[in-house]
Amino acid sequence: MKNNEPISAIMTKDIIALNRDDDLEKAEILFKRHKIRHIPVVKEEVVIGMLSYTDLLRISFADAVDETETEVDTLVYNMFTIDQVMAKNLVTVAPDNTIKEVAEVLAKKEFHALPVVDKGLLVGIVTTTDLINYLIKQL
Questions:
Q1: Is beta strand 113-118 parallel, antiparallel or unpaired with respect to 121-127?
Q2: 134 lies in which domain range?
Q3: Would you call 12 helix, strand, or coil by DSSP?
Q4: Considering the domain boundaries, does residue 103 fall inside one?
Q5: How many domains is the chain partitioned into structurally?
Q6: FRET partner for 119 with CA separation of 20 to 30 A, picked from 20, 64, 67, 96?
Q7: Residue pLDDT, tens place only, 112-138
Q8: 54, 119, 61: which is closest to 87 by C-alpha?
Q9: Distance of alpha carbon 28 from alpha carbon 8, whole angstroms
Q10: Residue 2 in domain
Q11: Is residue 117 part of a domain?
Q12: What is the Cα–Cα distance from 28 to 36, expressed in whole angstroms?
């Protein structure tokens, strides 16, 4: 296994992101449509937060709706903004951080996704699933 391989080798580069002005209904639709669990929140291309599907579950009954369902109950979502629900104190990594370094950060923290930032701009996202898939390929 290569210890010095950069995280850019396994990160997701085709980023699905939200703006802080988007609503939580749009977020849930994106989570379900793309089968993802974390969405960076950006202002232009600068990451300002991270929204997880778990964040939505905490404020709604999103888990009671079939994941293939495209209609969502917006009553609860209209009570909150993305800015109120997203995580704001983010840890970010650079594309040249090694896979090992990023795995160590994720192992020590209580989150499962990290924005990958280059020169202040969001260029990717890496998740624990990315790391597990990498490990599977190595074995």
A1: antiparallel
A2: 7-138
A3: strand
A4: yes
A5: 1
A6: 20
A7: 999 999 999 999 999 999 999 999 998
A8: 54
A9: 27
A10: no
A11: yes
A12: 10
